[in-house]
Amino acid sequence: MEFEKLKIFVRNRLGQNDTAHDFEHIMRVLKNATMIARKEKASIKIITAAVLLHDIISYPKSDPRSKNSSTESALESRKILKKYRFSQYEIDIISDAIRDHSFSRGATPQTLEGKILQDADRLDALGAIGIARTFSVSGSEKRPFYNNVDPFCKKRLPDDKNWTVDHFYKKLLLLEKTMNTNAGRMEARKRIKVMKKFLDELKKEI
């Protein structure tokens, strides 16, 4: 039952995280990763550990250290996993997967488990939950919903540091093309349809 102990440890550590990177985010990513791992015949043990620890260190998006979150989480995961009976081989795979999963790092994971973690985490940025997370982060950063002159980036480059809706055009709607697995790509396609429908409805309301 090492995983139950690890889950409790992670839940306690993430207690202060923002709602976009809290323990419920971890559980949703785990659901996504387990679905993909079964289809791709990957190690559930390694995937589970990687998901549980992938945000063990998470800085707010406005914090200049934010881009280092995945690297620091990878290093921290090595220390933690030694206490939970993982082999050095498993720790290396898990740590590398965590280091390379983040969008801001711009890396493609080398292992199947790393690819699955990256896909599963990106899926939680899409669909209905992705919309909720986008506006949650926006609220914490006190960012306006949209640019009132050109809300949907028709005649300008998206600037998601200033306007929330721009994040859809700068990153979220492009994530399908970054997926590593067929299962991840198919699920991303479904969730992006939800987001496009939301944007269509938003256009009617503003």
3D architecture notes:
The chain is an all-alpha fold and 206 residues long. The protein has two domains: 1-107, Hypothetical protein af1432 (Orthogonal Bundle); 125-206, Hypothetical protein af1432. 59% of the residues lie in helices and 0% in strands. It has helices at residues 2-13, 23-40, 44-53, 69-81, 88-100, 112-123, 127-140, 166-170, 182-205.
The percentage helix is: 55-70%
Structural class: mainly alpha
Largest sheet: none
**How is the CATH topology of the largest domain named?**
Hypothetical protein af1432
Instruction: Work out the strand percent.
Output: under 5%
Features:
Hypothetical protein af1432; 206 residues; 9 helices; 59% helix; globular; mainly alpha
Put the structure in a nutshell.
This protein has about 210 residues and is an all-alpha fold.
Question: What is the fold's blueprint, element by element?
Answer:
Layout: H1 2-13, H2 23-40, H3 44-53, H4 69-81, H5 88-100, H6 112-123, H7 127-140, H8 166-170, H9 182-205
Helix pairs in contact: 1-3, 2-3, 2-6, 3-5, 3-6, 4-5, 5-6, 6-9, 7-9
